[in-house]
């Protein structure tokens, strides 16, 4: 299935400066949000307690707030609707000092006048564990980047590796900025979505880089901008089809999956859009920005091929000598 004719070459590089400048501005603004406003960390990372309630009727949120305010344990508690008018989530930073204390029973007692309800879930995370999860999440992302850098450098060359990592940093930075802008709670689900997007974005970038490598080996053309336009145009249908399939799957999760995976699906939606955009318009132009030279690349390929042939000749010579002996 082809959305775009393989015979048509689109002039992406003509507008490369506009795309790169725009995206760098967005990345800069995202970093400003990260260091000024910061993330709305969930209980997973800061510690605290989350209690989910299911009422038989519409949950009286105002009455719930009023009754919980009578107990210091729930000071500053956040009470929000969760997916439907009958369900609410109570979040508070205080963790019970006693493991024996049953938060569920305590809430049942406090909210007995608000109606009939069941406690669907109680999650308690200590602040130390939350801090460890946050640190391990950062370490996971850094290790993923290092692994990608090594993999692409071995498969292609170091400039391809740097361009791919810059592209990934661009995607993650803008995605994180959007998470802050839309006030999405940063939980383990959102972290999982961010790490998933690293692999998804890299896959699209590698497809284009692989096509560029093949074109460099086959063509005598040394105009790198033209080579990029050819390769991106030839992979455009594949990129769009893959992205649309992932987008509609994640959109279905976002619309029908409920509040519990809202953060994950929203982050994935943002990431798919940003990753597709960067794969088409950003990743290859970054190669030109870091000084990729077609003639030097071809010279390195020729040198490697020459060394390979010489090694084969030397190995053949050695085998012949052993036969004579």
UniProtKB/TrEMBL annotation:
GO terms for cellular component: plasma membrane. It is found in: Cell membrane. GO terms for molecular function: protein-transporting ATPase activity. Keywords: Cell membrane, Membrane, Protein transport, Translocation, Transmembrane, Transmembrane helix, Transport. InterPro entries: SecD/SecF_arch_bac, SecD/SecF_bac, SecD/SecF_CS, SecD_SecF_C, SecD_SecF_C_bact, SecF_bac. GO terms for biological process: intracellular protein transmembrane transport; protein targeting; protein transport by the Sec complex. The chain crosses the membrane at residues 15-35, 137-154, 161-184, 190-209, 240-257, 269-294. The keyword Electron transport does not apply. It is a multi-pass membrane protein. SUPFAM superfamilies: Multidrug efflux transporter AcrB transmembrane domain (SSF82866). Residues 108-290 form the Protein export membrane protein SecD/SecF C-terminal domain. Pfam families: Sec_GG, SecD_SecF_C. Part of the Sec protein translocase complex. Interacts with the SecYEG preprotein conducting channel. SecDF uses the proton motive force (PMF) to complete protein translocation after the ATP-dependent function of SecA. Forms a complex with SecD. Part of the essential Sec protein translocation apparatus which comprises SecA, SecYEG and auxiliary proteins SecDF. Other proteins may also be involved. PANTHER family: PROTEIN TRANSLOCASE SUBUNIT SECF, PROTEIN-EXPORT MEMBRANE PROTEIN SEC. This is Protein-export membrane protein SecF.
């Amino acid at each position: 299935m082809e959305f775009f004719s393989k015979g048509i070459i689109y002039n992406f590089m003509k507008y490369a400066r506009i795309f790169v400048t725009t995206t760098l501005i967005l990345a800069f603004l995202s970093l400003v949000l990260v260091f000024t406003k910061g993330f709305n960390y969930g209980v997973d990372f800061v510690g605290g307690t989350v209690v989910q309630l299911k009422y038989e009727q519409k949950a009286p949120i105002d009455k719930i707030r009023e009754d919980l305010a009578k107990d210091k344990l729930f000071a500053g508690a956040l009470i929000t609707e969760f997916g439907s008018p009958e369900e609410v989530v109570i979040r508070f930073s205080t963790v019970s000092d006693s493991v024996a204390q049953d938060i569920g029973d305590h809430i049942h007692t406090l909210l007995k006048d608000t109606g009939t309800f069941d406690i669907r879930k109680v999650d308690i995370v200590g602040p130390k564990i939350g801090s460890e999860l946050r640190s391990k999440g950062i370490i996971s992302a850094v290790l993923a980047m290092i692994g990608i850098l090594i993999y692409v450098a071995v498969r292609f060359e170091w400039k391809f590796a740097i361009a791919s990592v810059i592209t990934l940093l661009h995607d993650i930075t803008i995605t994180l900025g959007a998470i802050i802008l839309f006030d999405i709670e940063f939980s383990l689900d959102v972290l999982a979505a961010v790490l998933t997007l690293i692999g998804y974005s890299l896959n699209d970038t590698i497809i284009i880089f692989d096509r560029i490598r093949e074109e460099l080996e086959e063509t005598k053309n040394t105009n790198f901008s033209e080579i990029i336009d050819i390769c991106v145009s030839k992979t455009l249908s594949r990129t769009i089809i893959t992205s649309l399939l992932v987008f509609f799957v994640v959109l279905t999760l976002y619309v029908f999956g409920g509040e519990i995976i809202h953060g994950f699906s929203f982050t994935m939606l943002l990431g798919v859009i940003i990753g597709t955009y960067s794969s088409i318009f950003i990743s290859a132009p970054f190669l030109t920005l870091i000084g990729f030279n077609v003639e030097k690349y071809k010279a390195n390929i020729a040198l490697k091929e020459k060394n390979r042939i010489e090694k084969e000749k030397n190995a053949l010579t050695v085998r012949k000598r052993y036969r004579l002996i």
